[in-house]
Batch of 2 targets.
Target 1
Amino acid sequence: MKSTIGVGLIGTGYMGKCHALAWNGVKAVFGDGPRPVLAHLAEVDGQTARRRADEFGFERATGDWRELIADPEVEVVSITTPNAFHAEMAIAALEAGKHVWCEKPMAVALVDAERMAAAAHRSGRVAILGYNYIQNPLIRQIGHVLGQGTIGRVNHVRLEMDEDFMADPEALFYWKSEASSGYGALDDFGVHPLSLLQILFGPVARVFAHLSKPYADRPTADGARRSVETFDIASILFELSGGISGVMALDRSAWGRKGRIALQIFGSKGTITFDQERFNEFQLYVTSDKPAEQGFRTILAAPQHPPYDRFIPAPGHGLGFNDLKIIECHELLRRIAGEPARVIDFDTGLGIERAVHAMARSHREGRWINLDQEA
Amino acid sequence: MKSTIGVGLIGTGYMGKCHALAWNGVKAVFGDGPRPVLAHLAEVDGQTARRRADEFGFERATGDWRELIADPEVEVVSITTPNAFHAEMAIAALEAGKHVWCEKPMAVALVDAERMAAAAHRSGRVAILGYNYIQNPLIRQIGHVLGQGTIGRVNHVRLEMDEDFMADPEALFYWKSEASSGYGALDDFGVHPLSLLQILFGPVARVFAHLSKPYADRPTADGARRSVETFDIASILFELSGGISGVMALDRSAWGRKGRIALQIFGSKGTITFDQERFNEFQLYVTSDKPAEQGFRTILAAPQHPPYDRFIPAPGHGLGFNDLKIIECHELLRRIAGEPARVIDFDTGLGIERAVHAMARSHREGRWINLDQEA
Amino acid sequence: MKSTIGVGLIGTGYMGKCHALAWNGVKAVFGDGPRPVLAHLAEVDGQTARRRADEFGFERATGDWRELIADPEVEVVSITTPNAFHAEMAIAALEAGKHVWCEKPMAVALVDAERMAAAAHRSGRVAILGYNYIQNPLIRQIGHVLGQGTIGRVNHVRLEMDEDFMADPEALFYWKSEASSGYGALDDFGVHPLSLLQILFGPVARVFAHLSKPYADRPTADGARRSVETFDIASILFELSGGISGVMALDRSAWGRKGRIALQIFGSKGTITFDQERFNEFQLYVTSDKPAEQGFRTILAAPQHPPYDRFIPAPGHGLGFNDLKIIECHELLRRIAGEPARVIDFDTGLGIERAVHAMARSHREGRWINLDQEA
Amino acid sequence: MKSTIGVGLIGTGYMGKCHALAWNGVKAVFGDGPRPVLAHLAEVDGQTARRRADEFGFERATGDWRELIADPEVEVVSITTPNAFHAEMAIAALEAGKHVWCEKPMAVALVDAERMAAAAHRSGRVAILGYNYIQNPLIRQIGHVLGQGTIGRVNHVRLEMDEDFMADPEALFYWKSEASSGYGALDDFGVHPLSLLQILFGPVARVFAHLSKPYADRPTADGARRSVETFDIASILFELSGGISGVMALDRSAWGRKGRIALQIFGSKGTITFDQERFNEFQLYVTSDKPAEQGFRTILAAPQHPPYDRFIPAPGHGLGFNDLKIIECHELLRRIAGEPARVIDFDTGLGIERAVHAMARSHREGRWINLDQEA
C-alpha cells in the first residue's frame, strides 16, 4: 500500500471543517492506512481558501475548484459544498480519476443523482456519501445484536429525526423554504434515518407519506411575508422487505430537539432503542433475563464496540460527533485500499434518494408507492 | 344534594376491582359529594359474586346482573365486563333509570356503540366511559399549558401506545387474536391515545392507517398453530382540525413496553412530551428561557396540579394508576350532580369509536378517510 | 380470625388522611384479613373531628383523643399527630390494650422513644411505625435480589434524601427551624433512609456526621429575622456490619428535589440503584450479561413484584405513594394476626432513633461514634 | 506570535494518544494560534517510539526521553508516563527551558509535587496539568450560571466519581493495588472532582475522609492471593470557603459506572446537576419558572456554550472525550502566548494534591483536617 494519499477539500463550512478534522486525525486515531497529505483546498474565493488552508493544514488553496481537481497530487476529493453543486463536482472529480467523498444527499433532482452513480461506475473509482450516523460504533453494535438474533425476528421499526433550526416562525425566510432546495424535511433529514434503515435492514419496499407545513409563511427582510414552499414536517409509513412495518417522523421545526434521531426496533425476543442526542448509549430489552428482572439496559459505548477502542481505551467516556466522521474517513480509506468497508456508495445512496422521491410522490398522490416499481 | 349514592358493580376483573377501589376511596380522597353505598355486585356466578362482594365491601351479590339493575337502591352502575357485553348491559341500566359508568371501548361493532349513545340520550341519565388516562393531573396541566399559549400554536402531534402482553410469539392463541374481538391494537389501544387527543384538541379530522401482524400464527393448546386474525400493530397518520398533522403508533407486542403512552406536542413556541410509564412527570420546552439555558424541564406532579393535592399535600410523591380511577369516579359524581366535569360521555366516546372504524377502513382501502364524511 | 377490626384514628393531616385512605382501601385491595370498621376519629376539636369523620367514613368523632382510646370498639389506633405527642398517645393506647400504628419518628427525645418501646413490651400488643418506603414492592424486590446474591457481596452503599420545602431562604421562620423540633434534616429525614438500610442490611455499626445550615436566619412575620436553630443539611459517613462502607446525604432545602430518596448499592457482581421520585422502577447492573451488552436495566414495577399484583394485574402501570400505606396497613394486620410481617416495630424503630442521636453526637464531637457502645 | 510551536511527546499510552490527537487537531479546530510541529516522540524503546511516531505524525522518535528534552526544536513537552516518572521528567523539561503539559496527578509523594511546582517557578515556563474535565464547555457554562447568581448563593455540593475497572474481585492483583501507587481511589480519582471544585469554587477548606477496601485480597498469577494495599473506595465530607458543605464519594470498583463524575450544586435559588457519563448535557432548576412549571431542565451542549462552536455549528450534536483534550491544548497555547487561559497550573495543582494528602491523614487520624493548617 502507498504510504500517503493526496487529499483535496472543496468547501469549508459545517461539513467542510468536519472533513478537514477527519483528514487531520484519521491516521493518529487508527494507526493504519496511508498518511493523508492535505494537498489542496478550494473555496468560493482565493482569500478565504488561503485562510482556511492555513487553519486546516492544507498545502495549496484555490478559489477555483477545477484547479483542485486538476491537481495531480490530489487522489481523493471531499465535496462539502451545497447540494446543488454535488453532481457537477463529483462527476468532474470522478472523470479526472479521483476518488470522491461527497456529502449527502447526492442531489436535489433524482436525475442528477443517477448521473453521479453512472459516473462512479464509469470511473472505477471509489465514490461514497457522508452518511456519518451509520459509523457510530453503537449502530454497528445494534447491527451485530440484530445479526445474532438477540431480539429475534424484527417485526416493527420506528424512526424519528427532529431538530429545531426551522422552529422559529418569525425567523427570516431563507433558501431552505424555497422549493428549489427540495421537499423540506423529507430530503433534508429523511436520508439520515433511511441510511440507518439501509445499513441495518436493507432498502425499504413501499412507502406512504404525508408532508406538512407548520407555518404557512415567514417574514422577509423587507418586512413582508413570503409563502413557505417546503414542508418542514414529514410523516411516513413504510414497509421493509419481509413485511416489517415502520413509521418515520421528520420535523425540522421541533422546538427543543437538537439532533434527535430516535430509533425503536421491535423483535420477537426483545427491543432496541437509540437516540442520537445521547449517541454514546443504546437500550436493549431481552426476554432471556429473569421475568422479575427484565428491563431496558442502557449500554454505554465501550472498547467492546469497535472502533470505539481506537479513540479511547476506557468505557463510557464518550465519542463526539466529529469522531464519527473520522471513522467514516477510515472506512473510505479501507474501501480505496480494496478492503471490506462500511460505506454508503453512490449506488446505495441512489436507492435512498429514490425512496425519498417515492415518498414525495406518495404525498402528492395520496397512495402507497411500491419502490420496486419506481426503480 | 343527597348524602349517599347507591352503587352497583358488574364484573370484578382488572377493571372491576379498579372501580371497586375507586368507589371505596373517592369520598375519603375528595371529602365532598355523596357517600357511595356499595349496594350490589354482579359476577358470572353467585359464589364468585359473594366472595368479591365481601372483599370489595358490597352489601348484596348476584350471579345475574339483571337483578342488580333491578335493585332500586342502585343508582349508578359500573360496567366492567368484556366489551361484547357493554351494549346490552349499559342499555338495560339506562332504561332502568340508572347512571352508567362503562369501561372503554363502548362496543366491538359501531352499530352497538350507536345504540348505546342513543339509549343514553333517551334516558336523560349520565353515561360515561372509563377513559382514565385523561384524568391524570398532568394531562390536565398539559391542557392548561396549551390553553395558556405557552408553547404557541400547535402544529404537530405524535402518540405511541405500546405494551408487550401479545409480544411472545409462542404464547397460546387466545380470544384477542380472533377477529370477533375487533381489529387488534387499533381498538384495544387506539381509543386511549384518541381520548387524549379528544380532551386536548378535539376530534380528529382525517386518518390514514396501516395495520400489521408481527406473527402470522400462534400455537394452540393441542400443539397445532392457528392463524392470527387481528393486527397487533397499527400505524396511523392523521390530521386534527386546523391542519395539525399527527402520527400515531400502536403496538401490543412491543417487548419491554409495559404501559407506554408517549405523547409529543410541538408548537410554535415550545414542545411538550409525556410518557404514561412515568406519568407523574411531563416535559416542557419553552423558548422564553435564555438561549444558553433552554432545555426540556422535567416537571413532577405536585399540589399545583389539581386534584393531586387531594391525594398528597407534598409534591413529587407520586399518584398511582388506581388513583386516576378515583379521580374519574369523582368527575362522574360531579356530572351526576350537574356540575362541570371532565368526562368522556357516550356521545364523545362514539366519536372516538367512529375514528377507530375509519382507520380500519383506511387500512382496507389504502386511502385517507375524512371523518366528517364518515359521521 | 375475627372478621372485623375496630379502628381509631388520631390526627387528620397529611399522614392522618393517608392512614384513613389505607383503612378504607386495604380490604378491597388484598381481599384477605378482617374488614376494618372505622370506629372513632379524634382531632384537636370536636367540629373538625366530625367533619373529617364524615369525609373519611368514621362512625364517631371526638375532640379528646383519650375518649377514642377509651372506646372499647377501637382495637387499633393510628397515631398521626405531631411528633411531640407520639409518646403520650402511644403509651396510653398500649396501656389501654390497643395495637398501635404510629407515624415516624417515635419521638424527639430518645428517652421518650425508649419509654414507648418499653410500653409496647409490657402491653404485649403490636406496635409499629409508619415507615412506608420499605413497603414498596421494588424495595422488597431489591431485598430479594440481594438475598439471591445477584450482585454478589455488597461493599458500598450510598443514600440521599432531598426535598425542597425548606429551600426558600425568604420563607417565614416556623417550628421546623426551632431546636425543640429536633436536629433538622437528620431526624426529619434521616430515619427514612435508615429504615431502608435496616430492612435491607440490618442496623448501622458506626457513624460520622456533619450538620450544616444553608441559611443562618429566616424572616419572621413581624419583619425581623430570627436565627435558624436546626440543620437543614446533614452529611453522614457510616459503616454497616461486615465493613460495608456508606455515605448518606440529607437536605430539606434542596431546590427541585421533591421526594428524592436515592439509593446506590454496590456489590462484587453488580449494582442496584433506586430513586423514590421514580419509585415504580429500579436499576440493576449485573456482570452476567455479555460484556458488550452490559448496562443498567430499568425494571418497571410489575405483578412479579408482590404485592403490586394485588393493586394492578398489568405491569408498568404504577403504584402511588398512598398505595405504600395500604401495603403497610396490610402488614400491620398480618402482624396482629400473628403472621410473618414486614414492619418496623417499636424495638427496631428505637434502633433507628439511636442511630440518629449517635449521628448528632458525632457532629458535636467531631469523631466516629460506635453504635454498639451507644446502645 | 510565532507561527509554529515544536512539540515533544513522552509516553503513548491512553493519555499519550489523547495528547497526540489534541496536537494533531487543535489548529484545525480553533483556527488561531501557532501550528504545532510534531517534532519528537519518546517511548520506552526506540522501535515502539518509531512506530508510534509514524502513527501520530511525529518527525523524530527516541527510546530515551532525555534526547527529546535536549532537542532544540521541542518547545513544549507532553508528559503522559506513569505518575512515578512525572517529577523527574517535568523538572528536567522545565530546567531545559521547555513548557510542560503533564498528566495528573503530579506525583505520588507530596514532596515530589512540591519540587515540580518549585521547578516551574524557577523556570518561568508554563507548566500545566491534564485536568481535562474542567474544559467541558458545559462545566464552563455551569461556572457562568453560578457567576450570574442564577441559582443564588451555593450552600451544598455533592460529587461522585465512579468507574468499575477495579470492580472484579477475581481480576489479577496489579500495581494499582500496591501501596507504592498511592492511596487508591483517593488520588487516582479524587483529583478530578477536586479540579472541578477548584475551577468552580476555589480550594477546599477542611476535610474528613474514610477509605475502604471492597476486597481484602486479589488473586495472583501463581494462583495465590495477595492482600490489597490500596483503598478502592473513598468517602469524604468537606467544607469550602464560606461554609459550603460538601460530600464526595469515590469508587473505582463500582460495577456499571464507566466514567461517572456526578455533580450536584444546591443554591438558594436553584440547583445544578451534571454527570460526566452524559457530559453533553447538564440540568438546571430555577425558582424563577412558574411554580406549576418548575422542573430540572436538561440543557444540551450547543454553540452558545463556547468553545463548542469551534467544533460543531449545530446544537446537541455532542463533543467527545478527546475533544476536551483539544480544548485543554488550546488553553495551554493561550497561556504560552500570555493570554488568559483556563488551566490548572502546577501551583494550583499542588493545592489539589495537598487536599488529597490531607484526606488520607484525616482517614488515619479519624478527625477533620483543616487545609490552611496543612499548607
Target 2
Amino acid sequence: MSNPASSLEEAPPQETPLQAKWTYEPAGTRHLGIIDLGSNTARLVIFGYVPGQYFRIEDVVRERVRLSEGMGESGVLRAEPIKRALATLKLFKLHCDTEGVADIICVATAATRDAENGASFLARVQAETGLTPRILSGEEEAYYGYLAAVNSLTFGDGVVIDIGGGSVEITQVAERRLLRGQSLPLGAVRLTERFLKSDPVKKGEFNALVDYLRAQLGQVEGLGGAALVGMGGTIRALAKMDRASQNRPDHLHGHRLTRATVDRLVDQVRALPVARRSNLTGLSADRADVILGGAVGLQTIMALGGFDACTVSNQGIREGLFYERFLAPADPPLLDDIREFGVQNVMRLYGGNRGHFQRTRDLALSLFDQLTELHGYGQFERDVLGAAAWLHDVGVSVDYWEHHLHSAYIILNVPLPGWSPREIALIALLARNHRKGGISLEGLEGALEAGDADRVEQLASLLRLAEYLERGKTGVVEAVRVHQGSDWVQIEALTNGDASIEIWEANRNADLFHKAFARTVEIVEGVA
Amino acid sequence: MSNPASSLEEAPPQETPLQAKWTYEPAGTRHLGIIDLGSNTARLVIFGYVPGQYFRIEDVVRERVRLSEGMGESGVLRAEPIKRALATLKLFKLHCDTEGVADIICVATAATRDAENGASFLARVQAETGLTPRILSGEEEAYYGYLAAVNSLTFGDGVVIDIGGGSVEITQVAERRLLRGQSLPLGAVRLTERFLKSDPVKKGEFNALVDYLRAQLGQVEGLGGAALVGMGGTIRALAKMDRASQNRPDHLHGHRLTRATVDRLVDQVRALPVARRSNLTGLSADRADVILGGAVGLQTIMALGGFDACTVSNQGIREGLFYERFLAPADPPLLDDIREFGVQNVMRLYGGNRGHFQRTRDLALSLFDQLTELHGYGQFERDVLGAAAWLHDVGVSVDYWEHHLHSAYIILNVPLPGWSPREIALIALLARNHRKGGISLEGLEGALEAGDADRVEQLASLLRLAEYLERGKTGVVEAVRVHQGSDWVQIEALTNGDASIEIWEANRNADLFHKAFARTVEIVEGVA
C-alpha cells in the first residue's frame, strides 16, 4: 500500500526556484534584492513584499570588502580591493539567481563615486557579473538614508546622519520632509587611513583627527535641532557595545546613545590597540580598526549640534531604496503612520482571522472608552491595547498550545518600528495575559515604569472580556454598552443572535476585571 | 499624491473568507474541522494541511458541556446537558462557517453511544446545526486513539489508554499495529457520579471505587507490555500538575508520568474537597470534581499491567481522525518516520531556501561521518545535527536580526513529536550557536546530560563550517573531503566554481572547530 508520507522528499511538480520554497508569505509576495557596495562593507539584502502592504527581510549577506583600502587621497581603487569586490558581487548575483530573485537594485557609494577609475570598475562589474550598478551621488545617499529614518522612526524634525566607510551623509529634516542633504568625505575608513596610523593611536594623531573633524563639520549649516538620528556601521557598532554593557534586551533600532556614552566609548576604544578592541562585546574584529574614526565623527556632530543623544536607526540606504519601490508611485514615499503600519505588517505575515482580531479590538476599545472615568488612562494605553488586540494570536503560528507565550515572544522580537521598548513590553504582556489566570510580568519589569503592573492588569482584563465575547469568532456580539453603579459594572453585550456561550464564558472569566478594577462585573445580553 | 500605504485597511479584491486571511501557510493548504462531542467536553479543532506533507492546528475551541451529567445508569441524556450541547455545536458550526471551513467531521462518543435517546439527540443536532455527527463505537474510539499515539510517539509495542469522561479505551499494540482495542464504561465522570458522592470523598467510597476498577480492569486481557501511552483529559491534567510542581519547560506531549507520581497525585487530590482542588497548579476548575475517578483508573491500570510510567500523549481521537484523512488512502494510515516528519513539517511552515538547508545538512553530516574517529559520536548525535541543519534558520520568520535566538525559541516550542526534551534542547542549542562567537547554553542545562556542553560545541562547529561553505547559498561547494594529521585537520572543499569567499569565510570562522576538537583546521579548495 502506498503511503503518501513516503513521498515527503519529493518536490511538487513543475517547480520554479521560488515554488521550491514552501513559503509562508502572503500570496502575491514579490522579491527584490538590493546590493550596496560601500567603502567598507558590501551587502545584499533580499526583501519579500506586497506593494504598500507588507514586507520582510528574508536574507542578508554581508562581506567586508573594504573597497576603499589603500585609496588614500589618490582617488584610485586598488587591485586587491577590486578583486574582492568582484568576487563578492559575483557571489551576490549567483545567490539571487539561485533564490529566483530576478529584480535587483545595485548601488555603489563613496569609494566608487570618488574614484577616478570608478567608471571602469563598474564596467568590469557589469561585464563579469551581469549586475548594472548605479553610482549614488552624495545627495542621493543622504536622501535614501533620510527615507529610511523617517519611515522607521517617529520624529519629524532634526538631523539624520549616516557614518559609512568612505563618507558621512548629513540631512536636515523638517515636518518629515527633507530640507537639505549633503555628503562629506569623512567616513570611518578614510579618516582612519589618513589620521590614525599608529597602533595604539598616538595622542597627536587623535588630536589632529578631532581638529580636522571640528573644522570640516563646523562648516555644515543647520547642524542642530530636536532630534539626531544616526545610521551606518559605526553607529550600529557603538549601540551594540552600549547594549552589551547594559545587558539590554531591546532592539538596536531606536536605541538611544547618550552623549556621555559616546564619550565613554571613544575613550575606551582609543586606549586599546586594535587587536584588543574586539574583546569589547559588540565590536566585531571587522570593524575594530576603523571604529574610532567614525565614533569621533559622531562625537563631534553631537557636540557641534548640541545633541544630548543619538537615536540609532538599524535601517539605512538599503531600506531607503526599498521604500522608494515599496511605496511607489508616492512622492515622497512616506508611510502615513509607521506605528500602525508596523502592527499591520506583522499581522499580515502571521495571518489568522483578521475579522476576529478587528472585532476583538473594537470591543476592547469600546470597553476602554466607556470606562475612561474608571481607569483614567489615555491615548498611550489605548494604543497599546489596540495593538495587543491585533497581535495577541500571532503565537498560534508556533503552536496552538501555550500560544499566549509564543505571541509574547514574537511581539518582543519582531520589528515594530516606532514603538518604544516600554510599549512593546506592554503589548507583549497583554498578549501573554489574554487568556486566563493571574497576571505574569515575565521578567520584563526592567522595561516597565511605575504603575505598569496595574496597567497590564486593567488593560488585560478588558482584552480578556473582549476575547470571550468573540469566543466563537462569529461576530455575534456586535457592540457593548457599559453601565456603572457605585461599586459595580454592567456590560450589555448587544447581539445579533444566540450569544449564550459567549456571555456565559465572559462572566465565568470576569475575575480579572473584578480584581483589576475592584468592581463586580456582570455581562448580560442585549439586542443590537 | 496618492500613497498606497493609505489603502492598508482595504482587503484585496474578490475575497473569500479564506483569502481574507493573509495566511502564511504553504500554497494549497486545505482546512478540516473536527468536532468531538465527548461525555465531559466538546471540542472543535481546525487543521490546516497539505495531504501527506504538512499540517498544523490552527484553532481550538473547547467547551465543558458535561453531556453525561445526570445520566447515572439510566442511559438517558438529560435536558440541560442536551441544551448545552446543542448551543455548543451551533457555535462550533457557525465558527467553521465564519472561518470558511466547509469540511467538517463530527463524532460523538460514549455518552451518546450508550444513551437510549442518543439517536433522537443526534437527529436534533442535525436538524438544528446542519452537522451530521457519527457515533463512534467503542472499538472505533480505541482505534483513533491508537492512530494518534503511533503517529506521534516512538513506541512500537505496548498499551494505549484513553481515559475520557464516559469511557476508557484500551488498545494493545505490537510493531505499531493494533492487535486488540476495546472500550469500557469506566470514564471519569461516570465513576465520579457512581462512587464519589461525598465531598470530601469518604474512605469507603474511595475503596469501593478501587475495588470496582480492579475487578473490571482485571478482566482485560494482555494488559502489560513494553510501554504505556495515555491520553484524554484526566491524564493531561495529571501531567500538567506534575510539570507545574517540577517547573519543567518541556512539552506535555511525551511527558513521563511515573507510578510514584500518579500515586502521590491521587493521594493529594483525594484529601481535598473539590473547591480547594483547583488551587493545585495545573488542575482547572472544570476538571477538579472528576479527576479522581480518572486518576484511580490510571493508577489501577499501571498496577495491574506492571507499568513504571505512562507516557502522555497530547494527541487523541481528534488527531486520529485527522491522520486517517491526512494519510489517505494509506491503510493503516501510519507515518513512516515520525521524527523526520516532524522536522519536515516545521520546515514546510517556515519555508526558506530548502536547497540551501539540504546542502548545509549534507556538508555537515559528511564532516560528521568523516570525523567519527575524532569525535566518537553515533546515531543520536548525527540525528540531532541533521535536524539542526534543517531547522536552524526558522527564526528568520520572526526577524532576520538575531535569528539564531528566534530559531532556538521556535525549536523549543513548536511540536516535534518523537524527539525527547534533551534532543530538542540540543537541536535548539545548535541553532542558537550556528553563526559566530562562543557557545551559549541558554539556561537549558536542566534538559541536558553530562558531556552535552562538549557535544554542542563540537556539533555546532561542524554546522558552522557547513554553513560558511554554503554562505552564498549557491551550492558551489558540492562536497568535502577530510584529511587528518596528528594534530591538524584539512578539509578539502570540492567546488564547481569560484568558492573563494566561502572558503575564506570558513577559515576565518574555524576557531570554534579548533577549540572544540583541539586541532587546527585548514579549509582548502579542491575540484568536484
